[in-house]
Structures are given as structure tokens and as C-alpha cells.
Automatic annotation (TrEMBL), chain A:
<keyword id="KW-0813">Transport</keyword>
<dbReference type="InterPro" id="IPR025302">
    <property type="entry name" value="DrrA1/2-like_C"/>
</dbReference>
<dbReference type="GO" id="GO:0016887">
    <property type="term" value="F:ATP hydrolysis activity"/>
</dbReference>
<dbReference type="InterPro" id="IPR050763">
    <property type="entry name" value="ABC_transporter_ATP-binding"/>
</dbReference>
<dbReference type="InterPro" id="IPR003593">
    <property type="entry name" value="AAA+_ATPase"/>
</dbReference>
<dbReference type="Pfam" id="PF13732">
    <property type="entry name" value="DrrA1-3_C"/>
</dbReference>
<feature type="domain" description="ABC transporter">
    <location>
        <begin position="1"/>
        <end position="228"/>
    </location>
</feature>
<dbReference type="InterPro" id="IPR003439">
    <property type="entry name" value="ABC_transporter-like_ATP-bd"/>
</dbReference>
<keyword id="KW-0547">Nucleotide-binding</keyword>
UniProtKB/TrEMBL annotation, chain B:
<feature type="transmembrane region" description="Helical">
    <location>
        <begin position="344"/>
        <end position="366"/>
    </location>
</feature>
<feature type="transmembrane region" description="Helical">
    <location>
        <begin position="212"/>
        <end position="239"/>
    </location>
</feature>
<feature type="transmembrane region" description="Helical">
    <location>
        <begin position="289"/>
        <end position="309"/>
    </location>
</feature>
<feature type="domain" description="ABC-2 type transporter transmembrane">
    <location>
        <begin position="19"/>
        <end position="361"/>
    </location>
</feature>
<keyword id="KW-0472">Membrane</keyword>
<dbReference type="InterPro" id="IPR013525">
    <property type="entry name" value="ABC2_TM"/>
</dbReference>
<feature type="transmembrane region" description="Helical">
    <location>
        <begin position="167"/>
        <end position="191"/>
    </location>
</feature>
<dbReference type="GO" id="GO:0005886">
    <property type="term" value="C:plasma membrane"/>
</dbReference>
<dbReference type="InterPro" id="IPR051449">
    <property type="entry name" value="ABC-2_transporter_component"/>
</dbReference>
């Protein structure tokens, strides 16, 4: 799945200014960005719920069609279920809408409810469920037809840690089955753990995108960190680094530098307790990118 | 097509389970049955028990008069006035005649029974007085026997005109009730899906017009079921009270016509309701956004109501051809008077054309508005 140069304008506000992203089969793509950066707009355009002003959405290298989208699984930002409909009935209904036979929809619903720990609630109306359980049903609705692509807008928000684990497990299964998965989230640590690649969007533009390790290791973003105890003042004045001092411990941070030279200087100045290159966390990259 | 049926089935399955639907079904059936029985209830009894004290010369003459009025009389001989009073107070008899002298009742005598008994009494006394005057009662009766004026309708209409207009009134009432409730249900359903954003999910797998068609079809089937229940309830009540005997010819045709006109009217108003409904995102706003539509429906209702009183007047004749008025005025005219075939054809073609036009506009509004949540959308924004 690929988007190219998506533009979208709401009145005076430019929501998307040329968003391009690509997700390959079996890849999990984390979509991060501040509120209002354009994540939901992009996802809605991919799902065909919204029309882009310009740009294109490709599926298997050709423009995406309605029939392609019928095979996708979607979890919109604002959850929507029929409140009065029963849990199993509802999941089956959506399976049928995606073109499943009655028997296949029933079997898939049964299996999903079991997987999500909702079997006992199958006959309850949605409105009788807690919000967390409603969210599980929403997920089941996105998964019931064995989708060829998964697009989930903030699937983890409002879930307890157990539910987060379940959801992460389910998504990993789909990825292992070769399904591309895109989800947006504000929980960057989760994205870091789960995703193969990540895209950071800011004010309608992709500011960073690619495999998580690559984005983190990208030139100029790693930092050397050295911790020295018992060093005298001014030992590092000539080094291209920032120094902080607390309780007799010096912490030195440097961007690209001659790490061996710094190590030698540190060892002659005091006891080196820590020495190593550190990759920034997604959170740090995100802050930097959005700033 | 499968997707439309799928949506329709869901509408039927979910709504048929709701208390609201079942209650409205029961209430409408009971109400219509009661209305169908009303004429007979007001008409009073058609069998009476009369106590006779002393002479029972009244019996034959009163029975003849009663038969002419399609009323059953039975007589109970009583020993004396005291027994008659007791039986009256106990409600065992409806009236008592004392030896050709007095008529006793608990309160006023039932009007119909009074007329019958007085006629019988007059007949008996006339014969006695004729005999006393030396005349032969048989000859006098012979001389007084006159064939009544034959009654003829100048139109092919037969049956009681008050029954006809009562029947037409019932049709207006039922059509209005059903149109109003089904049309509101369509709008509420649209807003439910829009407000909860379910529509966003559904429209990734089916087209807007399929969702719209399925919803209108499903709720239409429920409306039709309700209409069927009402017809069965009304006709059963009519049979039970013997009212159907007075119904005009071609009841089946009139009822079938009412069903067809209901479907046309429903299609017209439901598509508009879906279009209007899709402009708002909250259930509380449905009433407001539907106001133009409910006002129109109300106007149609009032015209149809007026047409019941004057089914042959110019207003009824003209508006029975004009959509959407035809959807209620035409069935009224069909029930209350004779409608020319060409009128029916013109009305049907015009209504079908109106439904097609509304379908195009309503579907367009719906398609453009249903995914735009938030503040109410102006009609001009989506029609451009």
C-alpha cells in the first residue's frame, strides 16, 4: 500500500501537504504525529471515506479501488457500533457486509470472540459492555473478514495493559500472515517495540519515515554518552561536548566526535563508569521532528 | 442487491425486536379495531328482551316491525307490574309493556326499541279501532298498502355513504400514522449511523446508495407489516360486528389501492427523510431538520381529511392527481367515491415521477452529507 503526494484542504486549513508513505506485506507501520498533524485524515483517505484534493493511493502498484478496500479492515478514530445490536450478531453482520458467507462469518466471529476473551458476552447488546470491551468488539469488526490490509486509528487508546498485550498479539499474528498493518498511536514506546517501520507526520508533512532502526540510527542523531567520576574541573573544556556535573559525577554528551579521543581524555581525568553511543528514542526523535 | 438485502434484514431484525415497534404495532391494531367497531357501538343493541304484562296482542305486530329494522325481539311474559319493575331494575329485560297501556323502562326507553314497540302498539290499536268503527281491517290495510319509492344511485356507487366516508377516514388516519412513524424511523436510523460514525465503517464495504436503499426497504417492510396487521385487525373487527356487510363494493380493491399508495407515499417521504436526516449528527436535531417534511406530511393529511368530507369537490379532485398529495387523497377518493381510470393513471405516473426525482435528490444529499459529521449542514452546500 502506498500513498503519493496526498493533499487535503479543509477551508483555509491545509491538513495534508503531500503525504507519501508505503507499507509492504508483512510490515507493521506505526504512524505517529501530534494531534491534528494529519494521521486520521491520511487514514480516512486511504479507506476512501474522505477524498483527497490531489495525490493518489496505490494498492499492489495500481490505483486502489472500492473492491480492494472491501477487503481491508478498518478501525476508525471515533468508534462506531450499533449500540442495541448483540455482540456476535454485529461482528457477523460486518463480516457479511465484507462479502463473507453466513457460515464463514459465524465461524470467524466465534473464533475471534474466543481469541479476544469475549465469548461469554456474545449475546449481550453492545451498550451493556464496558468501553474496553466495546473496543475489543470494534477490533473484531475490523478483523472478522481476514483483511488484506489493516488500518487502525489509535487502536491502543483506552486499553488496559492486558488488553494492549492481547491486541499487540493479534496484530503480530496478522503481520506474520503477511498482512500489512498500519496503526496510529501516541504511545511511542509501543510503536518502537512493535513496528518494523515508522512514519512521523507533522503539520501535514511526513518528516521522518522508514524502518525503526534506521530512523533511530540515522546520521547525526546518535549521541555519545560518557559518565566520569572523580574528575577535576575543566578536564573536558577542549572537547566538542556538553558537560553536566552533579555529585562529583560528570556526564558528557557529544554528537559526531572522535569517541576514542574522548575516552582517552576521560580515563586520564577520572573513573569512567559508562561509555557508549546511544540511539535516540522515538520520543526524542518525535520531539525534535515536531519542534 | 445482496448487500441491500443484508442491510434491510438487519433493520428488520433489530427494529422488530424493539419494544417501541411492538407497542406501536399493538396500539395501532387495537385502535383501528376499536374505530371499526365504533359505528356499531353507537348504533346500540340489535336484540332486545321485552316483558309483557297481560295481553300479548303486541307480540306479532312488534315482531313484524322489528324484523323490518333487522332487530331481534324476544318476549318474556310477566305476571304483574311489580314483577316488570323488578326485572327492569335487575336489567333482565330492556322494556316492559303493561297490557297495551304503558311502556316501562329503566330510564328512557332505547330509541330504536321505543319506535318498534310504538309502531306495534299503533298497528294493534288501529285494527281494534277500525273493527269498533265497523270497518274491515284487512280491506283498510289493503287500501293503505303502497309500494315504496325505489331508490337509485345515479353513480355506480352502492352501499351506505356514511360507511364509505367512515372507511375513507380510517384509511387517512392509518396512512398518516404509518407514514409519519416509518419516515421518522428512517431519519432516526440515518442519524444513528451518522452520529455514531458506524457509517464510516459501513461505507468502506458497501456504497452509500446500497445502505440507503437497504434501510428504506427494511423499514418499509416493517411499515407494510404494520399496515397488514391493521388491515387484519380492522376487517376482523368489522366481521365480528357485522359491519363488513355494509361496506361498499370492491373493499378488496380499495384496501389494495391503499397499500400501493402507502408504498408510493412511503418511498417519497422516506427518501427525503433520509436526505434531511443525513444533514445532522445528533438525534436531538432530527425533529428540527425534519420540520419541512413533517409539515408537508401534515398538509397532505389535512387535505386528505378534507377530501373525506368532500370527495367530489374540486380540491380533492385536483390534489388527488398531484404528488405527494395523491398518496393520501387518491385512496380517500377511491374509498369514498368513484374514480375514473384515467385519473388513477395520471396520479400514479405523476407520483412515480416524483418518487424518482426525490430519489435522485435524496440520494445525492445523503451521499454527500452522511460522512460529514459535526455541525448541521446546509442543504445548499450538498445540492450544488
Amino acid at each position: 500500500m502506498e500513498t503519493r503526494a496526498l493533499h487535503k484542504r479543509y477551508g483555509d486549513k491545509e491538513a495534508l501537504r503531500g503525504v507519501g508513505l508505503a507499507v509492504r506485506p508483512g510490515e507493521m507501520f506505526g504512524f505517529v504525529g501530534a494531534n491534528g498533524a494529519g494521521k486520521t485524515t491520511t487514514m480516512r483517505i486511504v479507506m476512501g471515506v474522505l477524498e483527497a484534493d490531489s495525490g493518489e493511493v496505490l494498492w499492489q502498484g495500481r490505483p486502489m479501488t472500492f473492491e480492494d478496500r472491501r477487503g481491508f479492515g478498518y478501525m476508525p478514530e471515533e468508534r462506531g457500533l450499533y449500540q442495541k445490536m448483540r455482540v456476535a450478531e454485529q461482528i457477523e453482520y460486518f463480516g457479511r457486509l465484507h462479502g463473507m458467507s453466513p457460515a464463514a462469518a459465524r465461524t470467524a466471529t466465534h473464533d475471534l470472540l474466543e481469541r479476544l476473551g469475549l465469548s461469554e458476552r456474545a449475546g449481550d447488546p453492545i451498550e451493556a459492555l464496558s468501553l474496553g470491551n466495546q473496543q475489543r468488539v470494534q477490533l473484531a469488526v475490523a478483523l472478522v473478514h481476514d483483511p488484506t490490509l489493516l488500518i487502525l486509528d489509535e487502536p491502543f487508546s483506552g486499553l488496559d495493559p492486558i488488553a494492549v498485550d492481547t491486541l499487540a498479539g493479534v496484530l503480530a499474528e496478522r503481520r506474520a500472515a503477511g498482512v500489512p498493518v498500519i496503526f496510529s498511536s501516541h504511545q511511542l514506546d509501543l510503536v518502537e517495540q512493535m513496528c518494523d517501520s515508522v512514519g512521523i507526520i507533522s503539520a501535514g508533512r511526513m518528516v521522518a519515515a522508514g524502518p525503526v532502526d534506521e530512523v533511530r540510527a540515522r546520521e547525526g542523531r546518535r549521541q555519545l554518552k560518557v559518565v566520569v567520576r572523580g574528575a577535576g574541573p575543566g578536564w573536558a573544556d577542549d572537547l566538542p561536548a556538553e558537560i553536566t556535573h552533579q555529585n562529583g559525577v560528570h556526564v558528557l554528551r557529544a554528537a559526531e566526535a572522535d569517541d576514542q579521543a574522548i575516552l582517552r581524555a576521560a580515563m586520564s581525568a577520572g573513573t569512567v563508569e559508562h561509555f557508549g553511543w546511544e540511539q535516540p528514542t522515538l520520543t526524542e526523535i518525535f520531539r525534535e521532528a515536531v519542534a | 442487491m445482496n448487500d441491500i438485502l443484508l442491510v434491510a434484514r438487519r433493520e428488520i431484525g433489530v427494529r422488530a425486536r424493539t419494544k417501541g415497534f411492538l407497542i406501536s404495532l399493538a396500539v395501532s391494531a387495537v385502535l383501528v379495531a376499536a374505530l371499526a367497531m365504533l359505528p356499531k357501538l353507537f348504533a346500540g343493541n340489535d336484540s332486545y328482551d321485552v316483558g309483557l304484562v297481560g295481553s300479548d296482542s303486541l307480540r306479532t305486530a312488534a315482531t313484524t316491525a322489528a324484523t323490518a329494522q333487522k332487530v331481534d325481539l324476544s318476549f318474556t311474559p310477566l305476571p304483574d307490574e311489580a314483577a316488570a319493575r323488578t326485572a327492569l331494575l335487575a336489567g333482565d329485560i330492556d322494556a316492559a309493556v303493561l297490557d297495551g297501556r304503558a311502556l316501562l323502562a329503566d330510564g328512557a326507553v332505547d330509541r330504536r326499541l321505543g319506535v318498534i314497540l310504538q309502531a306495534g302498539h299503533t298497528s294493534v290499536k288501529t285494527q281494534e279501532q277500525l273493527r269498533a268503527a265497523g270497518l274491515d281491517p284487512a280491506k283498510v290495510t289493503e287500501a293503505m298498502r303502497v309500494a315504496p319509492l325505489t331508490e337509485q344511485s345515479v353513480s355506480p356507487l352502492r352501499g351506505d355513504s356514511s360507511v364509505r366516508s367512515g372507511f375513507a377516514m380510517l384509511i387517512v388516519f392509518v396512512l398518516f400514522f404509518l407514514l409519519m412513524s416509518s419516515v421518522t424511523a428512517v431519519a432516526m436510523g440515518v442519524v444513528e449511523e451518522k452520529g455514531s460514525r458506524i457509517v464510516e465503517l459501513i461505507l468502506t464495504s458497501i456504497r452509500p446508495w446500497q445502505l440507503l436503499a437497504g434501510k428504506i426497504l427494511g423499514l418499509g417492510v416493517l411499515g407494510l407489516v404494520n399496515l397488514g396487521v391493521i388491515i387484519v385487525a380492522g376487517l376482523s373487527a368489522g366481521v365480528a360486528t357485522g359491519l363488513t356487510a355494509d361496506l361498499p363494493d370492491g373493499v378488496a380493491g380499495i384496501v389494495a389501492g391503499a397499500v400501493v399508495w402507502f408504498l408510493l407515499g412511503y418511498a417519497f417521504f422516506a427518501v427525503l427523510a433520509a436526505g434531511f436526516g443525513s444533514l445532522v449528527s445528533r438525534q436531538e436535531e432530527v425533529g428540527g431538520v425534519l420540520t419541512p417534511l413533517t409539515t408537508l406530511l401534515m398538509a397532505v393529511y389535512l387535505v386528505a381529511f378534507y377530501a373525506v368530507a368532500e370527495p367530489t369537490g374540486p380540491l380533492a379532485r385536483v390534489l388527488s392527481l398531484v404528488p405527494p398529495f395523491s398518496s393520501m387523497v387518491m385512496p380517500v377518493r377511491m374509498a369514498a367515491t368513484e374514480v375514473q381510470l384515467w385519473e388513477l393513471a395520471v396520479a400514479a405516473v405523476a407520483m412515480l415521477a416524483a418518487v424518482a426525482a426525490v430519489l435522485a435528490a435524496g440520494a445525492r444529499i445523503y451521499r454527500r452529507a452522511v460522512l460529514r459529521t459535526g455541525a448541521r449542514i446546509r442543504l445548499t452546500e450538498v445540492l450544488r
